[in-house]
Design goal:
There is one protein chain. Helix 1 (65-74) packs parallel to helix 2, helix 2 packs parallel to helix 6 and helix 11 packs across helix 13. The chain is built from 15 helices and 24 strands. With 499 residues, the protein is of the alpha/beta class. The strands form 7 sheets. It has an 8-stranded parallel beta barrel with strand order 5-6-14-15-16-17-19-20, surrounded by 7 helices. Strands 7-8-9-10 form a 4-stranded mixed sheet, covered by helices on one side. Strands 11-12-13 form a 3-stranded mixed sheet.
């Protein structure tokens, strides 16, 4: 006879937080949202932590290199989508790792014998406006000059004009010497009003570049998530089919953490994938998705560094109506969090959990953290922003962005759902849709974070750990849901005629 769960499958909207005493020092300004993303032993620190509990979903319409840079700059992490060739995915990871604050290894280099045409082609390929000119065109060759957009005029200079004739020569450059630290380099940039400071050794060989814009970006984004080399931290999604080909390229490109992207994570294929990664590489790996204690423990015992929770709750996911598989996100998270706490008591090992799906309103994020999630993964939320990889379109009188699921035919991501069958989607588990355009990531994320910190202050919590330990949560009735919004009034127009 089948096992029947006595409790209904519940969603976030069925719960509310009850305020605790707010002490005078428990203000939004004093709330710290730092959270672990990789497992660690009691008394130790995780190898990787997030400065804000946000990750962007492993989706074509959400997480490319631009989103990776933008979210890491704010303190979160993106998992670059895996439904592309391993080479293309590794290239995206590499772009995030190379876009770093501090000492940057030059990736756009030419020789004096190249031409303006070569400069323009390289700029179009890389997006870099500063090009180092070395004797051999390598990033560590003898520095002979620098080319920026101020050194040529496309309207007047012929395309075959040699670089040697318009570059700023080494003799006219202000450079830093090998061994200089970042504060000293930034002081030179400000003192000499530079945009770029080359760092060279005693033989004039180029070591790195330091940019003014990176200094400004760091000051504007103090929570930026960076590794020990001042490169942005970035993740990448993999599947359980081509991991032996994909993982080596991602690790070589510098991926800090991997995650197995699958509709259902409670499988032997995930255990095999985790084992391969752990045996061959020094890189962290998360797994999922699961919705109960059994699935969580299976992945933890397989070696997962974090576990993703949620099946069928995503805004573009139709797994539940197609297959009848899944569970309400709140119910899933509550059970997995209880299993995680029991595992921690028994072993002394804390395994972070990620709540993936089911988040509609900003307060759902705070609820998920209170219910035990260490961080959340969202697709629709991030797809709305300028930094997502999809097109901005005008539909009617509104601007929208395209948003499609990895289970849709458009994504062609059969590996995410395959269980040993054909190489293709027999039926869809995701839809192709639009989301309202919302502007820049940072502006919207700052507003969401303000709400989270304010709610945590109401709950008397200055950290996510305190919220999880002390939160009081209540179920709400259908009538209470109506009472929670504006009601029994005549609403005024939400926009003014002058806008």
């Amino acid at each position: 006879m089948a096992y029947y769960y006595p409790e209904p499958s519940r969603t976030f909207s069925e719960f509310l937080l009850i305020p605790n005493l707010t002490t005078k020092d428990c203000t939004p300004a004093n709330v710290d949202l730092k959270t672990p993303i990789t497992k660690f032993k009691k008394g130790e620190q995780p190898d990787i932590s997030l400065n804000i509990p946000f990750s962007s979903a492993v989706m074509q319409s959400v997480s490319d290199d631009q989103m990776g840079i933008a979210l890491a700059r704010c303190g979160g992490i993106s998992f670059i989508f895996g439904s592309q060739s391993p080479e293309d995915q590794a290239a995206m990871v590499r772009k995030v790792k190379e876009y770093k604050s501090g000492f940057v290894v030059s990736r756009s280099n030419l020789t004096p014998d190249h031409t303006l045409k070569d400069v323009l082609e390289l700029k179009a390929e890389t997006g870099h406006s500063t090009i180092a000119i070395t004797n051999d065109g390598s990033p560590t060759g003898k520095l002979l000059g620098i080319v920026t957009g101020r050194d040529y005029r496309i309207s007047r200079d012929p395309l075959d004009k040699p670089v040697s004739e318009f570059m700023t020569p080494f003799s006219s450059l202000i450079v830093g010497k090998s061994g200089i630290n970042l504060p000293e380099a930034n002081d030179m940039i400000w003192e000499h009003k530079l945009n770029c400071l080359p760092i060279v050794d005693g033989e004039q060989r180029l070591e790195s570049l330091v940019f003014r814009k990176d200094y400004d970006a760091h000051k504007e984004n103090p929570l930026a998530l960076m590794d020990s080399n001042k490169s942005y931290i970035v993740g990448a999604g993999i599947n359980t089919k081509d991991y032996e080909e994909r993982v080596p390229l991602l690790v070589e490109a510098g991926a800090d953490i991997l995650v197995i992207d699958a509709s259902d994570g409670y499988t032997e294929w995930q255990r095999d994938t985790i084992a391969y990664v752990k045996e061959n590489f020094n890189v962290k790996i998360g797994a999922g998705n699961v919705v109960d204690k059994e699935g969580f423990l299976y992945l933890v015992e397989s070696g997962a560094d974090f576990v993703k929770v949620g099946i069928g709750g995503g805004s573009i996911c139709i797994t539940r109506e197609q297959k009848g598989i899944g569970r309400g996100q709140a119910s899933s998270l509550i059970e997995v969090a209880e299993a995680r706490e029991q595992y921690y008591k028994e072993t002394g090992i804390y395994v972070p959990i990620c709540s993936d799906g089911g988040i509609v309103h900003d307060y759902h994020i705070t609820l998920s953290l209170a219910m035990g999630a260490d961080f959340v993964m969202m697709g629709r939320y991030f797809a709305r922003f300028d930094e997502s990889p999809t097109k901005k379109l005008k539909v009617g009188n509104n601007f929208v962005k395209e948003f499609w699921g990895e289970g849709s035919n458009r994504a062609r991501n059969w590996q995410r759902y395959d269980t040993g069958g054909k190489s293709g989607l027999v039926f869809e588990e995701g839809v192709d849709s639009y989301v309202p355009y919302a502007g820049s990531l940072k502006e919207n994320l700052d507003k969401t974070i303000s709400k989270i910190k304010s709610t945590m202050s109401n709950c008397g919590a200055k950290s996510i750990d305190e919220l999880q330990q002390n939160a009081r949560i209540t179920l709400v009735s259908a009538t209470s849901l109506v009472e929670g919004g504006a009601h029994d009034v005549i609403m005024k127009e939400t926009s003014f005629s002058g806008e």
